[in-house]
Specification:
- By secondary structure, this protein is of the alpha/beta class.
- 37% of the residues lie in helices and 20% in strands.
- The protein has helices spanning 11-22, 44-48, 65-86, 106-120, 137-143, 162-174, 192-202, 240-246, and strands at 2-6, 26-30, 53-56, 90-96, 125-130, 145-146, 149-152, 156-157, 180-185, 190-191, 208-211, 234-235.
- Strands 2-1-3-4-5-9-12 form a 7-stranded parallel sheet, sandwiched between helices. A 3-stranded mixed sheet has the order 6-7-11.
- Helix 1 packs across helix 6 (162-174), helix 3 runs parallel beside helix 4 (106-120) and helix 5 packs across helix 7 (192-202).
- The radius of gyration is 18 Å and the shape is globular.
- The structure holds NADP nicotinamide-adenine-dinucleotide phosphate.
């Protein structure tokens, strides 16, 4: 089966391409540096020729509110139109657990628009909602840094290894369209402030982590359960501590 992976050169996309190829599929990475740009439409019709499934694991190069909205709105619109013209029969997209609860964030408003465009397109689809990647914990710290202080809340977080996310995306890609959402998360929940302290300590990072219940996440306030998966989520196996130990 030919499966085109938009963002197939990224953290998740490169693992998805590798796994699908190992399963015997014709997995084609598509990204600006392979000549495919979903924002401009460049190379889209060509790469989609003969494809049955499209996996979208792309991300906006800029997280500024306007830029990220423009990215997900325009690229998803272009992609869904080109898929319909090429006879694609399944669109798979990666989004984030709790997207609908994080609408005070510009990034998550853009992810919500991406999801809504997919739901309203008429194209059979599967949306994979993942929790935060283990690899993104330093990014969370950086986003919450002022001077030498990292200000984060003590809300729950249940992060997942990128390889486990890629496996979930591959399962969706080779399965029947869900016309709905499947949630995936790591095996254990933590408190965000404690997890960030642990990650910084492991990297000998001197920044001080201050617990602040009002500290936003990507611009949105957090309740205890905002980032946590629901009861029906599929839990992956890789444990955070095992992954962190391998980073040293
Ligand atoms: N970070 C998290 O914790 C988290 C959690 C859940 C879900 N997600 C979602 O996971 C997805 C993938 O994240 P990631 O960290 O794997 O992303 P990433 O490593 O930043 O990769 C982004 C990919 O998008 C491609 N891309 C950028 N602009 C493009 C364009 N105009 N046309 C086509 N492709 C384009 C990039 O190609 P180039 O390399 O050529 O620029 C790259 O292959 C995102 O949608 C994100 O919302 C993230």
């Amino acid at each position: 089966m030919k499966i085109v992976v938009i963002g197939g050169t990224g953290l998740i996309g490169s693992k998805v391409v590798e796994k699908l190829k190992a399963q015997g599929h014709e997995a084609v990475p598509a990204a600006p540096n392979t000549g495919v740009n979903t924002l401009t439409g460049e190379g889209l019709a060509e790469v989609l020729q003969g494809a049955s499934v499209v996996v979208d694991v792309s991300n906006s190069p800029s997280f500024a509110d306007d830029a990220v909205m423009e990215f997900f709105r325009t690229s998803t619109t272009n992609l869904l139109k080109a898929e319909a013209e090429a006879g694609v029969t399944h669109h798979v997209a990666l989004s984030v657990v709790g997207t609908d609860r994080l609408q005070e964030s510009g990034y998550f408003r853009a992810k919500q628009v991406q999801e809504d465009l997919i739901r309203e397109s008429g194209m059979p689809y599967s949306i994979v909602h993942a929790t935060q990647f283990f690899e993104f914990m330093n990014g969370i710290a950086d986003l919450a840094t002022e001077g030498d202080t990292v200000r984060v809340s003590s809300a729950g977080i249940q992060p997942i290894h990128s390889a486990d996310v890629a496996a979930a995306v591959c399962r969706a890609a080779v399965g029947e369209p869900l016309d709905g959402v499947v949630e995936v998360a790591g095996p254990e929940a933590f408190r965000l402030d404690e997890l960030i302290r642990e990650v910084l300590a492991a990297g000998n990072d001197p920044r001080e982590v201050v617990t602040d219940p009002r500290a936003p996440y990507s611009g949105a306030p957090l309740e205890e359960n905002t980032l946590l998966p629901g009861p029906g989520a599929r839990l992956a196996e890789t444990r955070f501590a095992d992954w962190l130990a391998q980073q040293k």
